[in-house]
Amino acid sequence: MTELPAHPAPRWQLLRARPAPALLQVLLWALLGGFYFAWNNRPNFHFTGPVWPLVLLQMGFAVLLFNSLVYLVIPRWLVRGHGWRALAGGGGLLCLYRAWNYAGASLAVAYLPLSPDLRLLFHRFYIDPFWQSVPSAAGMLFALVELLAQMLFPLVVSFVAYALVVDRRRLALERDHFRLELSCLKAQINPQFLFNALHSLHGLTRTRDPRAGDAVLHLADLMRYTLYETDAERVPLAGELEFMADYLALERLHLPDAVVVAHEVIGTATTQQLAPLLLHPFLERLFAGLAAAGAGHVRSTVRVAPGEVALALARTAAAPLPAYRADAAVGAALRRLQLQYPGRHAAQITEDGGRLEVHISIQL
């Protein structure tokens, strides 16, 4: 079969790929242009003729200053700890500010029909003192004060805009971290648990145990849920509860008869949603080493309310078991609680000899 060549994306789709930064800049410069027009037409600073040459001069350098700070000086030098480069970049922008005003004012005076008062302002502040102020420390200090006075708005917006960009990148990294942890949780479910479940299933089929069919269905539901229904940031709580029930049903197959497993759900899950596989590590690590302990008792209780879900786990064993709280999967689950439900959860783990109690409550 011959494959057809892929068609390039339409041009309008390419233009629409990143419209937000461009639209924000257009809005920013429209607001700044209105500010400069109002500022240069204030009662004590009014010109007899059109003021647009001065506004254009100020706006042009504001655009240059904003993009230089947001895309070069702040992210590439200041944030990365290159202080001398950032300082040199700031000095370069200050010199460029003087050169920009000198060149723009000279062109305006030479080629534009300016009012006498605007022509006087260009000569007095931008053209005449240029050659004396550039090599002078006092002149550069005056230029710095003038720059801060005229460009305070774009300077503040530059740092705010970069802070927003950094925050957006932080949120993107956190989302990637969540997806990675969720993938790790899915991978943790598979190996040892699947081996135990398949071993138990093999024994059931060899003895023609009627529970074999139910075991296959539980295992299929478990794998379907982990592979196909946990990609969203939030999933229905009812699905999580069914997953827990299927998991416990399979755990009972390979545990000795001396280990009693009880599970209860109090309340009804309707429209509540929860982060996927958030409670599973607490339940799964409850059984670590329990099969070799000989005897024990496990009880899990889930209380469901319209805006809250609570998980209570209790375990007693005849022999010492591995430390629960120090387990890596439990630590990762606690971190997910802190990141995904900050200030909206409570977790308490109590280990006392052969007894373990876990209480998790989450405000949905």
Describe this structure in words.
- The protein has 364 residues and is α+β, with helices and mostly antiparallel strands.
- It folds into two domains: 11-171, no CATH class; 190-363, 2-Layer Sandwich (Heat Shock Protein 90).
- Helix content is 61%, strand content 13%.
- It has a five-stranded mixed sheet, with helices on one face. The protein has a two-stranded antiparallel sheet with strand order 1-3.
- A hairpin with a 2-residue loop joins strand 4 and strand 5.
What is the CA–CA distance across the termini? 52 Å
CATH superfamily of the largest domain, by name, is: Histidine kinase-like ATPase, C-terminal domain
Unreliably modeled segments: 1-17
**Count of DSSP-assigned helices:** 12
Question: What is the 3D form?
Answer: rod-shaped
What is the string of SSEs from the N terminus onward?
HHHHHHHHHEHEEHEEHEE
Q: Main beta sheet: strand number and arrangement?
A: 5 strands, mixed
| CATH second-level architecture of the largest domain | 2-Layer Sandwich
If you average the pLDDT, what whole number results?
77
SS-based structural class?
alpha+beta
Query: How many structural domains?
Result: 2
Strand order, main sheet: write it out. Answer: 2-4-5-7-6
Instruction: Report the sheet-strand fraction.
Output: 5-15%
- CATH topology tier name of the largest domain: Heat Shock Protein 90
- Computed CA radius of gyration, to the nearest angstrom: 34 Å
Portion of residues in helices? 55-70%
Counting DSSP E segments of at least 2 residues, the number of strands comes to: 7
CATH class of the largest domain: Alpha Beta
